[in-house]
Amino acid sequence: MPVAEGKSVQQTVELLTRKLEMLGAEKQGTFCVDCETYHTAASTLGSQGQTGKLMYVMHNSEYPLSCFALFENGPCLIADTNFDVLMVKLKGFFQSAKASKIETRGTRYQYCDFLVKVGTVTMGPSARGISVEVEYGPCV
Predict the structure, then answer these.
(1) Which single residue of 56, 74, 83, 117 has CA 20 to 30 Å from 38?
(2) Keywords assigned by UniProt (predicted)?
(3) For 31, how many CA atoms within 13 A lie in the half-sphere containing its CB?
């Protein structure tokens, strides 16, 4: 979602949430999604000029017992939360990219058949953008 002209990220998020509440959306709590980037360790690359692959490891408060890993141009893996411990043990194969943790935190709203999540995307201490997720869940 683009940041409103002349407004900060936080001001734009507050503007969006006020609009949702004026429509009649009800707060359903909060959510958090984080993503950490890993790259192939240099020791595992065979020939020079070969580029490493990226892997993104994500956690979602909507699925507290799961951890998601997405390989660049490859498969997706769903594991339990102990996958992070495995990644520490695989540091010879995958290394965490420096300052690569991105997090989205915000509020969940229920509006008729829709679940709307509005959050602030942060990387380190600074806000980088706004995320809006809309999920359609028909009641019939």
Answers:
(1) 117
(2) Activator, Nucleus, Transcription, Transcription regulation
(3) 21
